[in-house]
Design a protein that fits this description.
Number of strands: 27
Distance between the termini: 14 Å
Shape: globular
Helix content: 10-25%
Largest sheet: 15 strands, mixed
Radius of gyration: 30 Å
Structural class: mainly beta
Order of helices and strands: HEEEEEEEEEEEEEEEEEEEEEEEEEHEEH
Number of helices: 3
Number of domains: 1
Strand content: 25-35%
């Protein structure tokens, strides 16, 4: 009987030695970065991407970042997805390290930044950015951002700012985009000459953040905004001036030019703010300008116990030619057709599954060992 117990104990131990390594959790492989090198090659070479002339076509959904070091090319996503690791991770979907690059037909979701551009003369067109922290971040000049659908950015839909390698982000064009349910739709902190036209800007917390972080500026560069539809946004303008005592602030004025000299923008609250406004000679333009003001209340406490409170005007502008009805053109995306998308399901690589599943293998080993033990015990009884 003692021998049987020893055999049984040995059998259980042997089974555990065989089964436990197989049953351990298997980790998914970490995503790798993809680079289009300056010489035109792609690293890694096994990437789901094929080259057609000067166009690199993505042939499958990816959860990898993409760095572009070759200029004068197009990257066509063919409606595939670049799925990010999460907005809390410091990861950029597409880093542009060259000029004259076009990014098109991609779906970019769940990244810290969708596109990071620090080189001039690039185009970002006909893409979907959903659920990123920042969708498009530009630190360079002469970009075209057109016909994109940008939604649910927890920080900026489009950022233009000074970069480490660029003094300004100038002469950029933002046109025919859908900017929906973002925190800040347009964050233009340092730029001279950005044109923003024919966009549908809807349900954002802020339309435009404008200016430099200084109390002494009286202009943030001329940002031209016209023929846009502004619908149900919470706030229009924010000028980020940071000073300890606000009574001496000189407001940024004009805080952008909100018409092109004859045509302004459509404001969904225009008639509720100006109920007596009427159309001028069937022009589609209202006869009452639309005022744009960013102000903040302040309270200064002094050591002697006195306090001064008031309102500081941080920025002012005016749309001189507001539209009575939404702007429409055949080239502007239809909001009903390009509604705010939900982030697509994660396309993380599946864990590597053994050809013989681990659970079945473990059960099989246990059954074989148990049958052997029972057979041996029956023989001993006989």
């Amino acid at each position: 009987m003692k021998n049987l117990k020893k055999i049984f104990s040995f059998s259980i131990l042997f089974t555990l030695i065989l089964v436990l390594p197989v049953m351990q959790p298997i980790k998914a492989q970490a995503p790798i970065g993809i680079t289009i090198n300056a010489d035109g090659s792609v690293t890694p070479s096994s990437t789901a991407m094929q080259m057609e002339g000067n166009t690199y076509v993505i042939t499958a959904d990816l959860n990898s970042s993409l760095t572009i070091e070759r200029g004068n090319i197009a990257v066509d996503g063919a409606n595939h997805t670049l799925q990010g690791p999460g907005t809390s991770q410091n990861s950029v979907a597409i880093t542009l390290m060259a000029s004259n690059v076009t990014i098109e037909n991609l779906r970019v979701t769940n990244w810290k930044a969708g596109v990071y551009g620090a080189f001039n003369n690039n185009t970002i067109t006909n893409n979907v950015f959903a659920g990123n922290y920042q969708a498009v971040a530009i630190y360079a000049d002469d970009y075209v951002v057109s016909e994109n659908n940008i939604s649910s950015s927890t920080d900026d839909a489009i950022l233009i700012d000074t970069g480490a390698t660029r003094p300004q982000g100038d002469n950029n064009l933002i046109t025919q985009n859908q900017l929906t349910s973002n925190n800040w739709a347009l964050d233009i902190l340092n730029s001279n000459g950005t044109t923003i036209s024919e966009n549908n800007i809807t349900n954002n917390a802020m339309i435009l953040v404008l200016g430099t972080l200084s109390a002494n500026v009286n202009s943030a560069g001329i940002q031209l905004l016209y023929s846009n539809n502004f619908v149900n946004n919470t706030q229009i303008l924010y000028v980020p001036i940071s000073v300890p005592f606000l009574q001496g602030v000189v407001p940024v004025s004009p805080a952008g030019q909100w018409d092109d000299g004859s045509v302004g923008n459509y404001w969904s609250d225009y008639l509720s703010i100006y109920p007596n406004a009427t159309e001028i000679d069937h022009s589609g333009v209202g006869d009452t300008p639309y005022a744009i003001i960013d102000s903040t209340t302040y309270s200064d406490d002094y050591a002697n116990g006195t306090a001064i409170t008031g309102t500081a005007i941080l920025g002012t502008a005016v749309d001189r030619y507001p539209l009575m009805a939404p702007f429409s053109a055949s080239t502007v995306p239809n909001p009903t057709q390009t509604s705010s998308p939900s982030p697509s399901p994660s396309h993380l690589p599946s864990p590597k599954i053994p050809e013989f599943p681990s659970a079945i293998m473990g059960i099989t080993i246990v059954m074989v060992v148990t049958a052997a033990i029972l057979s041996y015990i029956k023989k001993m009884k006989k």
